[in-house]
Automatic annotation (TrEMBL):
Active-site residues, record numbering mapped to chain: E44
Keyword field contains 4Fe-4S: no
MF GO annotations: isomerase activity
GO cellular component terms given for this protein: cytoplasm
Keywords: Isomerase
InterPro entries from the UniProt entry: Phenazine_PhzF-like
Recorded family membership: Belongs to the PhzF family.
UniProt keyword annotation of Signal present: no
The protein's name in its UniProt record: PhzF family phenazine biosynthesis protein
Superkingdom as given in the UniProt entry: Bacteria
A Pfam family matched in the record: PhzC-PhzF
Amino acid sequence: MRDVQVVEVFKSASGGGNPAPIAVDAEGLTAEQMTAIARRYGHESGFAFHPEQAADNDYRFRFFVPLHEMSMCGHATIGTVWLLHKLGRLQRERLSIETLSGTVTAHVQGLESQDPFIEISQPVGTVEPLSRPELREEIIEAIGLRAEDILDLPLLNAATSRVKTLIPVRNPALLDAARPDSARIEALCELIDSTGFYLFCPRPGIERQFDSRQFPKASGYPEDAATGIAATALAFGLLQYGLIENGERSILVHQGRAMGRPSDIHVRFELDGQGQPNGCFVGGYSAFATWQQPEADHHGA
């Protein structure tokens, strides 16, 4: 197997983070080989290549889950940049990266630091009501909750790179009690053009902090410990819901607690000259995973 190192991304003070197997020397790997690596590790995986547009970009990244290629993966992007930093391959704090979903900018805050904060750009989000609002009850049943467990707000499809269905849960205890039915979730996601359900609730008494869980449509595992692209979609959904005010203050999304992998995802809006969001950045801290060998039965992504 090509040299692969596992990086835990969006780590919190309590540990956690979302493991991402990373290969920074992926030249020559085929899509089938990269899918096989992701399947063997059981996690979203990142692969770094020379850019196709070398005059404009520093790297080209590709992303795979055990079942298919992904156009974008936030935590694998951050994990790949972090690993390049740890290997001494970064010469500047700002990078331009080609992905299937477009060009991404990465910022390494503290290039000389052993523990840099790394964030990546995402475009302005889109937020829309569900095309099939009559499926609300079925969606709630598919996550193992009841109608009264959900806030009296609409379910929304939000996206920066991939569409996520936002489900506002009443409190953290109910959020932790959710139990995904992966087969039903996949079928429902097909009907509403979504790539996963993103459950969230405000953290009681703390402004701009939220707890969340991500149940993907079809990745080969039932839940993610930290999902940067979903957190950016959530940020724009929160504006639509009126649960946050516009501004430069970061939003902190806590994910993974129910899996025993508490993770912290930081999102901040990028504002235009009129003070309106024209994009955002998502970031966090990373570290080498305590395990590096693939575990066939491990699905804690």
